[in-house]
Amino acid sequence: MTDDVMPRGTSYRIVPLKDKSYGVEVLSPHRGAWVMDSFQRESDAEAWIKSQLEKTAEAHPV
């Protein structure tokens, strides 16, 4: 799912996980909510969010 382009209005929130890694809670207006949970560092999760926002902006220009 990481290669999918998310629709506008999708929100992201970094969440710490029990194993001391990080997940990103994704809330999509069309797909519901789920957690991407494969980030060892918070900065990796932040970079993934930035990438998703850029892909969305490119795919759905205002």
Report on this model:
With 62 residues, the chain is α+β, with helices and mostly antiparallel strands. The chain has one domain. It has one helix and three strands, in the order E-E-E-H. The chain has a three-stranded antiparallel beta sheet with strand order 1-2-3. Strand 1 (11-16) and strand 2 (22-28) form a beta hairpin.
- Structural domain tally: 1
Beta-strand residue fraction: 25-35%
Alpha-beta content class: alpha+beta
Give me the strand/helix succession. EEEH
Got a strand count?
3
From the spread of the alpha carbons, the general shape counts as: globular
Helix content: 25-40%
Q: Nearest-angstrom radius of gyration?
A: 12 Å
Major beta sheet, strand line-up: 1-2-3
- As residue ranges, the low-confidence spans are none
Q: What does the main sheet amount to?
A: 3 strands, antiparallel
Distance between the first and last residues' Cα: 24 Å
Query: How many separate helices?
Result: 1
Mean pLDDT: 91
